[in-house]
Write a structure and sequence with these properties.
The complex is a heterodimer of chains A (127) and B (360). By secondary structure, chain A is an alpha+beta fold. Chain A is built from four helices and nine strands; from the N terminus they run E-E-E-H-E-E-E-E-E-H-H-E-H. Chain B has three domains: 142 residues, Gyrase A, domain 2; 81 residues, Alpha-Beta Plaits; 78 residues, Elongation Factor Tu (Ef-tu), domain 3, CATH 2.40.30.110. In chain B, the strands form four sheets. A six-stranded mixed beta sheet of chain B has the order 11-12-13-10-4-14, sandwiched between helices. A six-stranded antiparallel barrel of chain B has the order 15-18-17-16-19-20. In chain B, strands 6-7-8-5-9 form a five-stranded antiparallel beta sheet. The longest helix of chain B has 13 residues. Chain B is globular. The two termini of chain B are 38 Å apart. Classes of the chains: A alpha+beta (127), B alpha+beta (360). At the A-B interface, strand 4 of A face loops of B.
Chain lengths: 127, 360
Amino acid sequence: MSNPKGCKYTESHEWCRTEGPAAVVGITQHAAEQLTDLVYIDLPSVGDTVSAGQPFGEIESVKAVGELNSPVSGEVVEVNQAVLDDVSIISSDAFEAGWLIKVRLSNPGELDGLMDAAEYDKILADH
Amino acid sequence: MLQDTARTTPLADVAAKDGPTWVDFAGWRMPVQFEGIVAEHMAVRRRAGLFDISHMGRLVLRGRGADEAVEQLLTRRTGTMTASAIRYSFVVDSQGNILDDVMVARRRDAWQLIVNAVNRERVVAHIQRLGYGDLLQDITFETAMMAIQGPASAALLDLVWPEADAQTRRRYHLWSVPRNGEVMCGSRSGYTGGDGYEIHGSPEAVASLWTALREAGAAACGLGSRDSLRNEAALPLYGHELRESSSPWELGLGYSINLDKEFVGRDEMRRRYDTGISRKRVGLVLTGRRIARENMPVYDGDVETGCVTSGTWSPLREAPIAQAMLEASSASAGRTVAVDVRGRREQATVVELGQLLPRA
């Protein structure tokens, strides 16, 4: 498992990647593997506002429920319907097909406060 | 709960070969999952899975007075049990608190109790307090215990342990048979609602059997799937469905109490029986995908009618299921209720306990 270089990471195992004025947000492969057996995900709707460090949804596995914390602040401009229909996509492809929401950044400077792949790798290694 | 001093079971080394994640449970370090809860669950439903259940307490009572002691200790009549018979029963203290639910087996020269890991120490203390300590031997730490569960269990056991003659065994009878010269005890029983066997013996003999059954194709399973399987089979778990103050009749377990015989705690058990049934243990099948978990309140219309005692995902139904204690007026099969899952109501249908596990 490798964490893509082009992403930024949170300590609660979310990733984000900029796409023009927006950021794509998801959970890491590590988080998906820790949860295992995903059964449900709750995501905000297009037009909702999310805030950095604040919960924007929940993800549930047979074992446990986890909160999804947004790495960035802004307005939700797209939600991954495929993941709402079949949450197991996250387990098989957390960094691509398993993305969760796209957020129009209200404060792009927040990205600087997130970890890069090397820093996140280190957190996982120390875990 | 989590402690650094958790004991490892004699099967930890063979289990570790399959790289499980571990959890501390009742003072033991146990595999919680190997391939994944759903995969292990389905392995047991379709073929066969192995469980390390060495954490379960194994108590033996033998000697002069053991027959009377066991009759006093258990709520089920034991005097009429034939040699090798196994029964499900409760242990109740003199104040009427249910201390544990146990499997009792009558061996030729002794009685054997399989008790819950969480309750082993207090059941032992209870037995000593009643003055039966001299009859008691706790063999938990010097033995190992495993289960093989699922429709292929008999065939796989016969393959690696022909002397066990697994295919012909009746359910709930104990046998002692050698494998490679070492005697192990087995019974056709389990905690999954399907066919299967539970086996205990020396650490080496049981570990060798585990390895042989893994090589024969049985899946390694952890406490996670053990819990989802027992929930799907609507089996109660002490500390969740069953508690000190429970009414066995409300739980649908009244058959394991015999008020016509003497046992410790009988007066209180009779009082609970006379109180009648105001709540009932039922199964719930949820409409959505969010899992109803322990202690979540259940509503019938706007009225709170009970709560979830255990909940999980049913891989067979591909839906969340739960056991719940509901007011009797809401507990009839087919009734629509709602579970409050973190502030949002999720619709559920009441099903009879025996209907939670879909028939093939």
